Amino acid sequence: TESQLHSIYMTYSPDDVGLIVLDTACACSVGGIDHMAAYQHEIQSRYDVGCWQCDECETFTFGNCAAQVSHEVWKVPGCALGRPVVFSASILQGSFPILLSLAQQASLGIKIDTEHWTADVRALNICDLPLRRTSAGHLAINVLDGWPTHVDGSMFDDVDVSTLQQDGDRALVVHASEDAHRLFGSQSSCDSDSLSGDPFSSELNDVF
Questions:
Q1: Three-state SS at 29
Q2: How confident is the model over 56-66, as pLDDT tens digits?
Q3: What is the 3-state secondary structure (H, E, C) of 95-156?
């Protein structure tokens, strides 16, 4: 039933805004429209940037619950330790954070350390990114509070919307300006050699 679906997948708190759940069992990334609207409000007010919306018609079934249809996929700008990236999520009714699919995690080369509650994000050259827990207890990354100081949404100005519409369920790394890179610094960065021989290298090289 819908109430069962909400109790399992849609536990929500305002503190969850900006969190993206690392859901290794999710076949395709999804997000609740109420949560997405709250996130968009935050990035517009803080950084003067919004999400992109593209039409779609995809059906989702959670457990033995009734199927739900997504008519929009949102392309969602965010930052982790100052590194800009655009996530993708099909939109469903409800108030729940983005559940990031295994495929989209793979496109970023994410490796989760459950002992220390950290993750490596190889496509962003980040090691030991601290993870958060959502109100429902899921491990998640925070992409709202990791924007670099003194850098606004202009870092996303060169994003090609037509490319976003074609890329499906994958995250896309954005090449930031030289000013932004200088502000990012090298803290918590992985050794560049760690990317060599990576099984997802063909995907990691497909960046803006």
A1: coil
A2: 777 676 666 66
A3: CCCEEECHHHHHHCCEEEECCCCEEEEHHHCEEEEECEECCCCCEEEECCCCCCCCCCHHHH
